């Protein structure tokens, strides 16, 4: 077949297109948005003017983060993808395949935190499975599906960006990469930048969600009246997310790198661990395309919630391609393909050991 799986991380578009996409079970006219590369959610028509957005991800639990912090993040990873539809996350089905080393007390902390976070977000847990198995290990301890239900004319997907839209990015680059390093290697960061810096940087962890970003964005209007597409910049960061939106929508982009927020603490952590912040994993960063007449309302709504955001470029016709402007010079905006976070994290773990 000539295809290869990645050493780490998500499969490539070629693997998705050749193996996954042609084999999606029984066709259904109710599936409005089927599985697609770079698209966070599927959309199912429920009838009577209602749709359901569905997303599935691993349950990602890292004991080193602390059980409560790890469980908070596990829920927000899932809810963030669902919220990029513009619909409020509503239901959760969860499968926990627990390592043999996990104790009842640890499970209680994880589960009560999942319950608390779901309650805060308005998500009802409707189904699940919980067991211990050999061969299971952290951080992937199962999988979960979040569903969001709402009006058929109120959802968006990364396929809906239009020529003429402006591109807005919230919070900035590498929020997740910096946040995970901050809680995993505080002593190394303190040695480089001081104890106060290291302690402040750990607050980045709680920024690793786009639930509030996405629901706030959708509140100003969608489609013709506002936001046309949303996508969280997870694997391969801002660069990867921008390219995925462009490819899903069949459009071009013209992006100015200097307009993408890069926090000082993020930049320093990325420099310390050898990561390109614009290509590094960034749950917490939301890419939004919006009709020009609503961009001021969007920025105002985000600011009212304390969410930093900036206009970083515009959507252009596909024949103009993907352009990244760096220091006034144009170059092609390309998908990083391999996220630098994984190799950097592995190196740091080896050095810590």
- pLDDT < 50 stretches: none
Structural class, from secondary structure content?
alpha+beta
Assembly type of the chains comes to: single chain
Rg over C-alpha atoms, rounded to the nearest angstrom: 20 Å
Q: What's the shape?
A: globular
Proportion of helical residues:
25-40%
Largest β sheet strand count, sense and barrel closure? 7 strands, mixed
The strands making up the biggest β-sheet line up spatially as 8-10-7-11-9-12-13
- What is the number of helical segments per DSSP (H or I, 4+ residues)? 11
Q: Which band does the percent of strand residues land in? A: 25-35%
Order of helices and strands: HEEEHEHEEEHHHHEHEHEHEEEH
Whole-number mean pLDDT: 96
Instruction: Give the beta-strand count.
Output: 13
Walk me through this protein's architecture.
This protein is α+β, with helices and mostly antiparallel strands and 353 residues long. Helix content is 35%, strand content 25%. The strands form 2 sheets. The protein has a 7-stranded mixed β-sheet, with helices on both faces. It has a 6-stranded mixed β-sheet with strand order 1-2-3-6-4-5, with helices on one face. Helix 5 packs across helix 6 (195-201). The radius of gyration is 20 Å and the shape is globular. The relative contact order is 0.15.
